[in-house]
Amino acid sequence: MLHEVTEDGGLGFCHHVLPGLLPPGYHGPLVVAVDSNVLIDLQQHGAALMNDEPLPDRVAADVAYADELSGLADLLNLWLLRDIRFVVTPRAKTDAKKVTERFLERRLPSINALADSLAFQVGNWSVPAPSHGPSPTPVGEVTGLPDGADRDLVLEAQAVGAHVFLTRDRLVLERAELAGPPMALLPPQGLAADLLAAGVQPLLGGTCDGDGCPYRDWGLPAPDMGKWGGLLSVLE
After folding, report:
1. What residues contact 45, with CB distance under 8 A and at least 6 apart?
2. 29 near 12, Cβ under 8 Å?
3. How far apart are CA 137 and CA 53, in angstroms?
4. Which of 26, 143, 191, 213 could disulfide-link to 15, CB 3.0 to 4.6 Å?
5. What is residue 51's three-state secondary structure?
6. Element housing 227 (H / E)
7. Which helix (H) or strand (E) holds 76?
8. Contact 79, 86 (CB under 8 A)
9. How far apart are CA 34 and CA 163, in angstroms?
10. d(Cα 140, Cα 89) in Å, to the nearest integer?
11. pLDDT per residue over 3-39, tens digit each?
């Protein structure tokens, strides 16, 4: 279900335009697995990003971090109208060194919100989101990362069929080497830059319009806006 073309999801993407992110012959949504650090960014700074408000001084002072948040804002603005399916995998619920009640109170609403938004995009409320199912069986291997949450999250993202694992973790970005089904490991700014370079915009770009392309005669200007509700509800 994660990769099926649906009207509720909106205009998707094609391999021909994004060969570095999508498998050959693919036409459909861009599936992005979200690392815990990005999930926290969404909750803490999402409202400011969506409203184009200035970041707190202490955050803005960290130029590299502010740049990543700017990339995340670009992705959120694309997500509003394009079929980008943000997913969280089960390990995201337990990747803290010590899972506390306060941790769960802050983390779980965000995970549930992404699941609600995803349900609108797939158009099928009976299909559980990856975060609500059991840990998927690995379909590949990863080297360069020690046993632990980082390694588990990458493997889970690959197992659910994500095209991108979105993370700010430098250890993952610099050292992880994947074998098996292709999946890009990118920070928010990197993914936003790749989409921009491919000509992706909120209402056009990113599709091939070739024979057999489901988006060739796509007449819907926007997806079901119900998908906005879940994610936007938890942005602080």
Report:
1. 55, 59, 69, 72, 236
2. yes
3. 41
4. 26
5. coil
6. helix 227-232
7. helix 63-79
8. yes
9. 11
10. 16
11. 999 999 999 999 999 999 999 999 999 999 999 899 8
What end-to-end distance do the CA atoms of the chain give, in Å? 30
Token pair in block for residue 207:
């599709």
Instruction: Show contacts of 131-135: CB within 8 Å, 24+ apart.
Output: 131/87, 131/88, 131/89, 131/90, 131/92, 131/93, 133/90, 134/90, 135/89, 135/90, 135/91
Which backbone phi and psi does 197 adopt, to 5 degrees? -65, -30
Provide Rg for the chain, Cα atoms: 17
Q: How far apart are CA 192 and CA 173, in angstroms?
A: 16
The two structure tokens encoding residue 28: 């459909």
Cβ within 8 Å of residue 61, ≥6 positions away: none
**Dist. CA 31–CA 135, nearest whole Å:** 18
* The overall pTM is greater than 0.90: yes
Nearest to 36 by CA among 134, 199, 161, 156: 156
With contact defined as beta carbons under 8 Å apart, do 75 and 231 qualify? no
Rounded to whole angstroms, the Cα distance separating 230 from 56 reads 25
Which single residue is written with the structure tokens 């928010």? 188
With beta carbons less than 8 A apart as the criterion, state whether 176 and 145 touch.
Answer: yes
* Residue with token string 């184009």: 52
Quick one: which of 168, 160, 68 has its CA closest to 114? 160
Residue type, 7: E
pLDDT per position as a tens digit, 68-98: 999 999 999 999 999 999 999 988 877 655 5
